[in-house]
Amino acid sequence: MIEAGQAKKIINEESKLLNRENKYEKVYILDSLNRVLAEDIYSLDNLPPFDKSAMDGYAIRSLDTQNKENIILKVKSLIKAGDSCEEPLKEDEAYKIMTGAMLPRGADAVIQIERVKVESDNLYICEEVKKDNNIIKLGEEILKGDVPLKKGTLIRPPEIGLLASLGYEFINVYKAPTVGIVITGDELIDIKSEIEKGKIRNSNEYSLKALIKNSNAEVFSVGIVKDDRTALKEKILLAFEKSDIVITSGGASVGDYDFVKDILREIEADIKFTCVAIKPGKPTSFAVYNSKLFFALPGNPSALINTFEEFVKPAIRSMSGIFKNESDEFQVVLKNDFKAKEGREKYIFVKIEKEDGVYYAYNSGSQCSNHLRAMCNSNGVIIIPKNIGSVRAGEVINGKFIFR
Ligand code: AMP
Ligand code: MG
User: Fold this and answer.
1) Is pTM beyond 0.85 here?
2) Contact, 313 vs 376, CB < 8 A?
3) Does position 394 have pLDDT exceeding 90, yes or no?
4) Do 87 and 70 form a contact (C-beta atoms < 8 A)?
5) 292 and 242, same structural domain?
6) What spacing in Å lies between the alpha carbon of 257 and ligand 2's midpoint?
7) Are 344 and 218 part of one and the same domain?
8) Number of domains in the chain
């Protein structure tokens, strides 16, 4: 049995080795959300493209307000956003100007509407206005030729806005890996079916597809396969053919009908580990086959989700070009006792609430790895280290939010 941290290290190393440099695609900017830029983005324009007003007010010459007792300027006309004013501003003149409008030639400052008085065409100013006051200067944000977004950047809503303001409609992003899923178990029936004797509905296929979607990867499912060695091997090989990562659900343990590990040996996959000191999720295997990653995940529904989040998701992220260095864990004060045994790193799904700046963890129900209900009642998880058993209310432990 391998330590959970060691398992993560191995997966991280193997996924980094899979070179994705040449695997990119051109997508519409809105489809690039949560993907990673595969090119440097150069600016073909200055942003903003002209000096513009940051306020609704009056465009003036700052000099006209300096060392003067009474400042009275003549208001010429109104410049609104989108106009281009041809006539330059002359001494002791002002233009009324709206936010975002282009500054007229000769003007070097804007005074806010709220700070002046206007009677007929006369503008009264009672203060000295500094040069560049309330002006957003040409190229202040980005200069023509700049690289405001570098290859490797994760695209979030502000990046999409910036791309749009630079005139990019399509950009190159790294291709998301395709994850092949193979669901095994003689007890499984389709979710449309009524429950029959000895059978349960195939929920894992759906949670897996949702987890993959949540990780912004593509899915290829071979559906349910019987606990039959030949059929299972055939479907695993098909999944390898069609995907970058293959996941099996179920059949990964030591039961008489758990064939996944035998098949890995038979096809001579490079098996890295077959058992992890994590709860839930001990019967998890990881292997590399034909430069593709393979995860055998346990069939127990919450173990499957936990191992996906801890082991598969980081691999998908790194194959998508996302390298996360910062930890998302924080300290949580326990509101209840939690029973646990030493020997494995334990993930206990809880409700985390913040009160007066402190995070507290509340019990959310039975943690049986066959149940999903407690996970549905949870927004977070606390992680009890391997060498610690039960923990008590009031103790402080590391936790994190889930599915964020
Ligand atoms: P296994 O990993 O095959 O030993 O299965 C462990 C437990 O998970 C058993 O109780 C299975 O019935 C259950 N299980 C396996 N596959 C699925 C599935 N696709 N959906 C829901 N439960 C499953
Ligand atoms: Mg089974």
Assistant:
1) yes
2) no
3) yes
4) no
5) yes
6) 7
7) no
8) 4
